[in-house]
Every structure is written in C-alpha cells, then in structure tokens.
Amino acid sequence: MFTEAALLESRSLRSGLSRHVHALDKVKALVLLPDGLHVTTRMVADYFEVSEEVVRQLSSRHRAELHSNGMFTLRGADLQRFKRDILSRYSVQGYPQPRSNLVLFPRRAVLNIAMLLRDSDVARRVRTYLLDTEAGARDAARGTTGNSVCSSLDRHVEEVAVRAATGAVTGVVAEAVERAVAPVVAQLGELNARMARQTEVVCAMSVRLADVGDDLADLRRRAGAPRRDRRRR
Questions:
Q1: Which end of the chain is more exposed for a tag (fewer CB within 10 A), N or C?
Q2: Which superkingdom (predicted)?
Q3: Is 6 in contact with 108 (CB distance < 8 Å)?
Q4: Predicted pLDDT of residue 88
C-alpha cells in the first residue's frame, strides 16, 4: 500500500491519483466561483484552512506540476473579461479584486495542492481518503483477476514509491528496468542468432548458385562449339 510520505514526495504517485477529484467534496465541500469550474488562491486557502501566503509559496515551488493540472494566471484583457463575466457574480463576502493578475485553480489543481500541503488537517484527510480508495481498488482488481503478475508489479511500484521518498529511487528503478528488459534482451539475442544462421544459409546458397551459373556457362560453351564448326564446313 502507498504511504502518505511517498505521496508527498513522489510526483508520479500524485499524477496517478489526480483523477480522483471527488475526494475533495468527500472530505469538505469545495466552494467554486460562479463559472462552476475554478477557485482563487483565497478560496484554496479557505478550503485547506491555511493562509493565502502558504498557498502562494506552495504554488511557486510546484508551479510546473500545478500548471500540468490546470492552474493558470489571468492578466490584461482576459482578466478584465473574467472580472466582468464571472467575478461580478461572486456573492460570498464580495468578490476578490485582483489588480494585475489572478491565479485560478480547477478541481484537479486543488487536489494536487492537497497532495502537497503538509500542514493542513483538511489536506491530510484528503490524502487519507485517496490512499484508502486506491488501496481498495487495487485489492478488488487483484481479487477479480487473480493475476500474480499484476500483483508482483504492484509490489514493485510500491517499493519504488516508498524508496523514492527516502532518496533511494535510482537503484530501485535500475533494478526494475533490468527485470523488465531482461526478457526482451533474451528474445533479441535469440533473434540475432536466428538471423545469423539464416545469413549463413543465404550466403551458402549464393555461392552454390554462382557455381551452378559457371557450370551452365561452361555447358553452353561446350554445346555451341561443334555447331560453329559444322557451319564452317
């Protein structure tokens, strides 16, 4: 089973769980802007019961990851249109008044924050729900298929994730890759051996055909010589 420490440290694990956006409302209702899609930095902070500065710092440290999950920044004319069309309908304690830019988070990015934010009880509860849900899904899949190969792969993935949290991922990945590639390497070696044998056969056939060609040419020369002699007589 994946651990919370592994989830906090492994971007690949977070990516694999980012589809479970329903976990947010299972723990606490997430209030959205009137567009029904996004929340602001302040709203993210309110949801996780932390300060806006904590959310800003976390967003800055993990900007690329959060952008891949939909976080974006509005500026200029786009920001003015959003303020007019969306924020003007925001009725909770007056709508936020961004001056030069506004960072927006869809549910997927908010869930990403939950998997990164250490000092929040709400975030910890979301992580617990995610891990329990994923563990239940894996157990159900193993029970349904009874596939020992999949079970073994799950164990390898979990081992990689846990060791990644302690900085020991390089050796584990190398071992996992070596185990996965070994059968392919063996098959390639066998294929190369077969191709070498076939090449030898083709070469032998080419030599034999060349010999046959020489023999035919010699026969033609021998068969043609008497006919030329008869014509001269």
A1: C
A2: Bacteria
A3: no
A4: 82
Give the CA distances from residue 64 to residues 52, 178, 184, 222, in Å, rounded to whole numbers and listed in that order. Answer: 19, 30, 35, 83
CA neighbor of 54 nearest in space, from 122, 107, 101, 139: 122
Report the candidate in 133, 147, 119, 173 with the shortest Cα–Cα distance to residue 10: 173
Phi, psi torsion values for 102, nearest 5 degrees: -145, 120
Strand-pairing partners, residue 38, are 106
Tally of residues, the chain:
233
Query: Model confidence over 77-100: pLDDT tens digits?
Result: 999 999 888 888 776 555 556 678
**Cβ-Cβ contacts under 8 Å for 105 (sequence gap 6 or more):** 38, 39, 40, 41, 44, 66, 70, 71, 113
Beta bridge mates, 74: 102
Which backbone phi and psi does 106 adopt, to 5 degrees? -80, 175
Nearest-angstrom CA–CA distance, 23 and 3: 17
